[in-house]
Amino acid sequence: FVYEIRDLWPLVLIEMGRITDRSLVARAMRALEYFLLKRADRVFGAWRYFDKYVAERGISPEKVIWIPQFAVKERIPSQCTSPPEATPFTIIYAGGIVNFMALDIVLQCALLFQERSCNDVRFLLVGGGQELPRLRAWAMDKDLKNVEFVDPVPKEALYAIMEHAHAFVISMRGLPHHVYGVSLNKLCDYMAMERPIVYATRSSYNPVVEAKAGIAVEPENAEAMYRAFLEIKAMSPARRREMGRNAKAFLMEHHEVTVIANRVHKALSEICVG
Predict the structure, then answer these.
(1) H, E, C per residue of 249-272
(2) How far is CA 255 from CA 68, 244, 265, 268, in A?
(3) What pLDDT is stored for residue 274 in this prediction?
(4) pLDDT, tens only, 16-31
(5) What's the confidence (pLDDT) of residue 94?
(6) What are phi and psi of 23, to 5 degrees?
(7) What strands, in cross-sheet order, belong to the sheet with 42-45?
(8) Greatest Cα-to-Cα distance within the chain, rounded to the nearest angstrom
C-alpha cells in the first residue's frame, strides 16, 4: 500500500485560516492522515523534506520517497527562443490565480515600476482562479497600465506565450509549512523555458538558488521583488541566458519524468522484494 500526499492536509487549511486547529474537521483529517501514514508501506510526498513532517507525527521517515513535480522532456520546446531585447521587459506568471500564490504582491511590484516611471516593463498573469476578479479590480482601481491578465490556455499553447518572457515570477504566502520544502508544477515549466526566475518564498527547498537560476527574495515583500527584477533587467542578455541554461540543466537532472519514474520503480521494487 502506497500513500501519496500532494498537499499537507489539514495543516495547509489551518495555516491559511480556513479551519481551526481544534475543529472537528481538523481532528478528523489528522486522524485519517495518521491512520494512512501508519498503514502505508511507502509514502510518496512532493515536499523535499517531507520525511521531517512524517517523523514529527511519530512515523518512520524511512517510509518516505520524494516524488516532486516533474517535467516531460518531449513536451518541452527543443529550442527556446529568446525574446527581442527591444520589446518591453516582460515578466510572466503562469498558473492558478489563487490566494496561496501571493499575486497581490506581484501587482504591488508592478505598481512600483509604474510609480517610479520605469515604463519599459510589463507583467503578464496567465491563468484563472478565485482571486482573479479581486486582482483585476485592484489593478483597475490603481490604473495599472503595465499589467495584462491572460485567460487560461491549454498546456500545449502555454509555452508559446511563455516564450515572450524575459523573466518569470513565483510569489507565495510566507506560511510556516513551507519549511518542508514546496514543489511547484509551474516552477518546472519556468525552468524548462530557460529564463531567470524571481522566487519569493520561504521554502527550505529552493531550486532557483541551488541551480543559480535567478534571485530568491522574502515572500510578501513587493519592494524586494521590485529590486530583484531591476537587477535581472540590468543584466546582459548573455547573463540571463546563462541563468536560463542553469535552470533547465537542473530541471533535467532532478525533475525530469524518467528520473522520477526510476525513483518510483525502485521504491515499488523494494516493497515487492520485501
Answers:
(1) HHHHHHCEHHHHHHHHHHHHHHHH
(2) 7, 16, 15, 19
(3) 65
(4) 899 999 999 999 999 9
(5) 97
(6) -70, 160
(7) 2-5, 42-45, 64-66
(8) 65
